[in-house]
Amino acid sequence: MGNREPKMAAPAVHDVDALAGAGPPRAGEPLTDPGSTRSRPTGRDVARLAGVSQATVSLVFSGIAGHRVSENTRNRVREAAKRLGYQPQAAARQLRLGRTGMVLLAIPDIKGPFFARILAGAHEAAEEHGLTVVVGSQWDSDKLASMTTVNQFDGLLICSPTDRQIGEFPAFMPVIFLDSDPALGGRNRIVVELDVAGGMRSAVRHMVGLGHRRIGHLRYDRPSHTYRARQAAFEEESRHLDVVERLIPEPAGFEGLRKIAWEMLAADDHPRAVICDDDLAAACVYHAAAEFGLRIPDDISVVGIDNIDASAFFVPGLTTVDLSGEELGRLGITAMAGLLNGDDPQAPAPVRTRLVVRQSTEALRM
């Protein structure tokens, strides 16, 4: 009766508790020291509620738990902290570890829908690992090297870099490359691949399966691994097809894209199927088709790549390759946390892509 707390089943004690030489506080102990005027919950309170030792709580919130504390225990500690409103003393932890807890995520275009998905996944994972994500855009290698040195970031994540954006960074700086060339991996460097080649192959096979043998391709002229991988996959899958290709210069902008799509469809023998390197180029094909009175998919089938939120609301809905930006962001932050914890994480398997079939494609009508 009274104000007694309900008893919780005591979990198995982890090795870290044994090494600390002290188990969790006893169930009968109060949440704060007797006679204390302190109202703010402490790490001892969190330990008691979670059924672990104070050492375990310290490890979880220090960001160096690594494999010494199971994921289940980490989640239990964080849940207890959330219930109590406990806030770890970040400044003291940073001084102790010599770290700020901040990582820089460099993306090509902060307005791009795909990169917004990466940022969403990165933020979610960063909260789990006690990190803070700062976003940078419109960068080059020199600017990044300067930013990471001056602003004291603990690590750097670089997304879809062009060749000129890949430079030399201090060896001590952990770097995660997202949607990049696997050859960039090495000591203190991890590449999280995105299977864009597999996505492009699925797009071409989809068109072939619908009976199309003459295919248009709107291709970006960008010197980066992700676009080289798309092009190599396209060429491999379309080697026995009649291909009409239009190169999109950088930068093109919406009007430039629309003009290139218009030029492709202006020919009397225009392709009846078009694959685009992203959904924005596909939207421009929609515009050009409307100008010529062509109906999608009756007169022309269209496939994009990205699966931006708006693609489902195109009229008709756009068939496109879904690139899981959220998963890419989550895996990137998880890999970064492993490097910062002193682990030796391996590069994860490439993030899978999938074709989302909507109403913009149908079997070829003779």
From TrEMBL:
Keywords: DNA-binding, Transcription, Transcription regulation
Record region (Disordered): 1-43
Keyword Heme: no
GO molecular function, one term: DNA binding
Domain of life, per lineage: Bacteria
Start and end residues of each HTH lacI-type domain: 41-97
InterPro entries with a match to the protein in the record: HTH_LacI, LacI/GalR-like_sensor, Lambda_DNA-bd_dom_sf, Peripla_BP_I
CDD domains (alphabetical): HTH_LacI, PBP1_LacI_sugar_binding-like
One Pfam assignment: LacI
Protein name listed in UniProt: LacI family DNA-binding transcriptional regulator
Organism from which the protein derives: Streptosporangium longisporum
